[in-house]
Structures are given as structure tokens and as C-alpha cells.
Amino acid sequence: MSFDMSYDRPALLAEAERQFTICNACRYCEGYCDVFPEMFARRAFAEADLSELASLCHNCRGCHYACQYAPPHEFAVSLPGLLATARTVSWERHAWPAPLARAFQRHGLALAAALVLGVGALFWALSALGGAGEGFYAHLSHAAMVAIFTPAFLFPLLCLAMTARSYWREIGGAPLHPRHVAQALASAARLKNLSGGQGQGCNFEKGDRYSNARRWAHQAVAWGFLACFGATAAGTVLHYGFNAPAPYPLLSLPKLLGLPGGIAMTFGAGALLWLRSRAEAGLSDARTASGDVAFTALTGLTALTGLALYAASGSMLQAPLLALHLGTVLAFFLTAPWSKMVHPVFRLAALIRHAQRQER
Fold first, then answer.
1. Is the pLDDT of residue 114 over 70?
2. Which residues cross the membrane (predicted)?
């Protein structure tokens, strides 16, 4: 089954209004997720409404497999396919700079591979000059790493901030209140909208059967990423605040956070790629498959190369693995503003806006 939704914005909005009108008349899926109360509260739909509903949708696909009007019915209602395309259009419209977003979404695998190999080769060449320190710093000095990675981290943050600002304005976001932010974070942490509203799980990879595998994989990646970020932050505090540079022992905070975090990210990303291979392809936007797979692969490879580097500490493999790991990390950061890293940014904004509307 395939749904070729147009990237023509007026045509996409017209198709969305047609399907939303049918859903508003039926209302069978009213309790499935936050998309439906937001949809049913409207009688007309502007582009901003479509953008907000698209970000609220977690593509659990429960509504599609429950819908009596889904293909082959002549009404051809397929909200997951429609909203997947609408998400892509929204992300590319708000991304800054926009041409880079389109390039990564269409050619993500090739761009990610070129960046990893190219930047990795550059780090390999730099490591031949040697560093000043122990462990990894024997191959590349701490000062060189800071000089390279600081702008590579700050520039993507700026791009993501510009993108989030543009999106928040379009969906009519009100001034932030801690209560609404807390509600949105709680929903995101539990992946509430990935359960079909019933807590039974997702229909993503098993069609009309429920599964929690995708939820667990997402949470493994998310919590693993936060643990690894915490490990980096702890290492920074130890280095600058306590004059205790790396390498750190196994029972130190950077290792206690980084090792389980890396393992969780590796298995979570691998599981997401495997589940994607089992899912019905027509219910996602096939034109962005390269970018989606590239982002997930980069996420898992970042963690996997970090674990391999730790295992190879002190061996002859340390230098090439360091180059590969740093190349992967840099590629991950450089592509973040135009990859699915905008995914949680837009979703959190939509969840906050939903919390704001609920109090009206």
C-alpha cells in the first residue's frame, strides 16, 4: 500500500481538510492520542493547524488500522501517511537554513557517510601530529578538541533555536508557563501518544497487533543520549572545576553515566532501524527515508564507536577508533538541525501548545 502525498502545500492542506472532515464526522478514534481532541476542536484548518497536528502525531498507526475508511475504502483516509508528509513539509519550511534540510532529508545516508569518513580521515591525519596528555589526548590534545567541537556544537544549537522560534510563532504559541512545560515533558517522557491512547502499545511494526517495542527503543535512545550528555558534562566539570582531566576510572561519574548510556543508545538505535524495516512503508514519507535512516544510524554509530574506543583503550586500535568516533560525533552534530533532531523540538513545542489549549 502506498500513499503519494503531494509536497504542494495547497494540495496537501486541501487533502488534510478532506480527511479531517471525515474524522470529525466519525470520531471513532477520539481517545487515541492528542491529535484527535485538537482536530475535533476545529471546524476549519489552516496550514498552522496542520503543522501542529503533524507534530503531535507520533506515527503509532493505531488510528489507521482501526479506521473503517482506510484504503481500500473509497474515502482513503490515512492520517499517519498524511501527517508524515505534513511533518516533512513543516520541518523543511521552518528549518534554518532551509536548503540544507532538504538536502539531508533526500540524501542523508550519502551525506552522513561522506561526513563520517571525511572528518574521520581529517582527525586521523591530525592524530599523527600527536597530542599532549594521557589516553585519547595522546593522539589529539584537549585544546584541539575544544577548538573543533565548540563551534560544531554551538552552531547547530543556534540553527535549532531559529527553527523552533519560527515553528512556535506559526502555531500561535503563548508565553511559556512552567506548568505547561512540565505537562509536555511528562507526556514526552512517557511517550503517551505512542500508545494509541489505551496504553497497549504501538501498531507501527505489527499492523493490527500491539507492541511496545518501538516505545522501548525510543526511550532507550532518549535516556541513553541524556546519560551520555550527562557523562560529558560531568567530565567537563571534573576537568575545569577539579583539575582532573580524562581518562577516568570505571567507577567515576563520566563512566557510570557514559557506559550504560552508550549501550542503551546502541541497542535502541539498532532496534529502531530493525522495526522500521518491518513496518508498512506507505504510512511514512518515503522521500525522507534516507535522512531518517541516516540520523538513526548516526545516533547508534556515535554510541557504538564510543564503546569500541573505550574497549580499545591503550591498544593499537585506539588512534583509528578515536578518529572514527570523533568523525561520527561531529557528523551527528553538524547534521542535527536538518535531521530528525528537530523531531523532539517540534513535538515538545506541539505538546506545550496542546497543554496551553487544554486550559482554555
1. yes
2. 109-130, 136-161, 220-242, 257-275, 295-313, 319-338
Burial of 144 (0-12, 13-18, 19+ CB in 10 A): middle
Is the model's pLDDT at 232 over the cut of 80? yes
Beta strands in the chain (DSSP E): none
> In the structure, what pLDDT confidence band is assigned to residue 3 with cuts at 50, 70 and 90?
very low
Q: What is the three-class DSSP state of 206?
A: coil
- Which class for 128: exposed (0-12), middle (13-18), buried (19 or more C-beta within 10 A)? exposed
Number of CB atoms found within 10 A of residue 250's CB: 8
Res 1: pLDDT? 38
Q: How confident is the model over 152-170, as pLDDT tens digits?
A: 889 999 999 999 999 999 9
Q: Give residue for cell 482554555.
A: 360
Give the residue extent of every domain in the chain. 9-91, 96-358
DSSP class of residue 173 equals P
Sorted by sequence, the CB contacts under 8 Å of residue 107 that are 6+ apart come out as 290, 291
DSSP 69-104: TSTTSTT---HHHHHHHHHHHHHHHH-SSHHHHHHH
Give tens-digit pLDDT for 75-97.
Answer: 999 999 999 999 989 988 898 88
**Alpha-carbon distance 32 to 68, whole Å?**
15
How many CB atoms lie under 10 A from the CB of residue 240?
10
What are the b/e assignments for 159-189, b being 16+ CB within 10 Å? bbeebbeebbebbebeeeeeebeebbeebbe
Q: Alpha-carbon distance 304 to 29, whole Å?
A: 40
Can you give the pLDDT at residue 275? 95
DSSP letters spanning 236-255: HHHHHHS--PSP--TTSHHH
More confident residue, 231 or 358: 231
Distances (CA, A) of 179 to 65, 113, 184, 189: 34, 42, 9, 15
